[in-house]
Predict the structure.
Amino acid sequence: MTPALTAALDVELHKLAASRVIRTTTVLLVAGITILTSALTYAARSGNDQVIAQLGPLADATGWALLTGVAAQSTAAGGLLAFGVALSWLVGREFSDATVTGLFAQPVSRPVLVAAKLLSHLFWTALVAIALTAAIALTGTLLGLGAWNTDVSAALGRQLVLTVSSALVATPAAWAATLGRGLLPGIATTIGLIVTAQVTAIAGTGAWFPIAAPALWALRPDAVSPAQLALVTVVPAIFAALTITAWARLQLDR
């Protein structure tokens, strides 16, 4: 990591920590998914037929399998939306607030600045993933779902990976926010990714679609091969490069 990137990352991390948007998103994501997961798990264990009917393949699951399955379903959509909106804000607000012109006078280049934004988003994602996984683990313990075993540990590990993956596949939002010069294009792109992932999952081709593969893997590890799961890394690699290139080509009149 170059000195310029280190300095830019330090600034972006401080901005991120002070951001009310990021703090609110963190609370809504961690608390929201935990509460929703707890409520649905409790209702299903209590025999609520309406809730059980909505669980699909998890209808017959019990104990930790039910809890972690519901958490994975909630994270698949809610996590991608939250991370995409946050990333759209991190990148798009420079255009919406008209602060992007000031970046041309900075000693640090624009590609380095946006790379720092992407890295700060990834760092925040890791913290959210740890917090959410810990909250799910605590919830299962408080609900008395039984002792931990290797299956429980594996399911919680998949929850952690799913949360991080949901942020990685949201990277196209940064590129869209750059091209569209604002938050809304990034948010619209995020919603489009969610819809596309749902369609491919229903069509049975989700394992080959990097946006849908992490959720499918978290729910059914045997349904997604290591090669298919590895495709997830292609999305952030490509769109991070596209975003950095787009920032390098920014002009004051656009």
